């Protein structure tokens, strides 16, 4: 699918606490999966190259929305455990700052509503017009004025946030920032691995990222191997990891499980078509 082809997504219009929310979600037919974790005091969205493509396109389209209350929710059907220790992920909520206002009470009510009575979705087309030209424009991808002035964050960029709120991993940014990060994250799909920072703050000499998007090589295989290693140690995959020693045991077991998977694939003869 090219950037000129619209994504098909689902839309639910929900009235919650006298607020109209337009909740955009992925369709079951979308095969891309993502995960999340919290590590080194930073929230991460994790995925493979296809995750970079999908997230980039979602952020680009979100930057051009005009309906107040629009959010993008990536939830259970498109989330998988982490590719490290198979920890459970958090639902991801992408929010355009200045267009949609949220608070913790609203988010708790949204979670309850989606669990009890989500309603029937409508199918919409999510366009990414202008994205191919922007990807070819260095100033659009890396604007020189975008972050710092006199060693401090510019006011626009100070409105970017990433944190866990009421059970959601929330990423909020104004449209101009959504566009810059859409291009940066989309461009990672050709990388073997790497990090893309989100929600920087602090002074130039000493800064911190509240969040990152991380590309994991062989993401699906790494998730599968981590789940195998977790099941080998815990009675139930859903059980929490009790100690740091157990966490390292699972991580080392994941590496071994991944090596076994790759070895099995090398031993399996490839079928040659005679047609």
Explain how this protein is built:
The chain is of the alpha+beta class. It folds into two domains: 7-217, Sufu, C-terminal domain (Gyrase A, domain 2, 2-Layer Sandwich), CATH 3.30.1360; 220-267. The chain has seven helices and 13 strands. It has a seven-stranded mixed sheet with strand order 7-1-2-5-6-11-10. The chain has a four-stranded mixed sheet with strand order 3-4-13-12. The longest helix is centred in the C-terminal third of the chain and has 24 residues, at 244-267. The mean pLDDT is 90.
Write the layout of secondary structure elements.
Elements: E1 7-16, E2 19-26, E3 35-39, E4 42-47, H1 49-63, E5 70-74, E6 92-96, H2 104-116, E7 122-126, H3 131-135, H4 138-141, E8 148-149, E9 152-153, E10 161-165, E11 168-173, H5 175-186, E12 194-203, E13 206-215, H6 219-233, H7 244-267
Parallel strand pairs: 2-5, 4-13, 6-11
Antiparallel strand pairs: 1-2, 1-7, 3-4, 5-6, 8-9, 10-11, 12-13
Helix pairs in contact: 1-5, 6-7
């Amino acid at each position: 699918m090219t950037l000129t082809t619209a994504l098909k997504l689902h839309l639910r219009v929900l009235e919650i606490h006298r607020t109209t929310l337009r909740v955009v979600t992925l369709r079951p037919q979308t095969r891309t999966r993502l995960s999340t974790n919290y590590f080194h005091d930073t929230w991460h969205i994790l995925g493979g190259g296809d995750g970079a493509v999908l997230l980039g396109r979602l952020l680009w389209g979100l930057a051009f929305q005009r309906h107040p209350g629009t959010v993008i929710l990536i939830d259970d059907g498109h989330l998988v455990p982490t590719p490290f220790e198979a920890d459970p992920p958090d639902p991801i909520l992408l929010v355009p700052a200045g267009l949609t206002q949220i608070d913790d009470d609203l988010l708790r009510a949204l979670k309850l509503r989606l669990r009890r009575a989500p309603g029937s979705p409508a199918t919409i087309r999510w366009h990414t017009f202008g994205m191919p030209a922007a990807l070819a424009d260095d100033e659009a991808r890396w604007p020189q004025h975008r972050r710092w002035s006199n060693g401090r964050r510019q006011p626009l960029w100070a409105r970017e946030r990433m944190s866990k709120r009421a059970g959601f991993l929330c990423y909020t940014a104004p449209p101009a920032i959504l566009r810059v990060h859409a291009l940066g994250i989309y461009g990672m799909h050709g990388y073997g691995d790497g990090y893309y920072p989100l929600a920087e703050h602090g002074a130039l000499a000493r800064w911190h990222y509240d969040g990152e998007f991380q590309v994991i090589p062989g993401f699906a295989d790494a998730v599968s191997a981590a789940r195998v290693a977790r099941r080998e140690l815990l009675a139930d995959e859903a059980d929490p990891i009790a100690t740091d020693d157990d966490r390292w045991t699972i991580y080392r077991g994941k590496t071994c499980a991944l090596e076994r998977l790759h070895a099995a694939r090398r031993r399996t003869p490839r079928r040659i078509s005679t047609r």
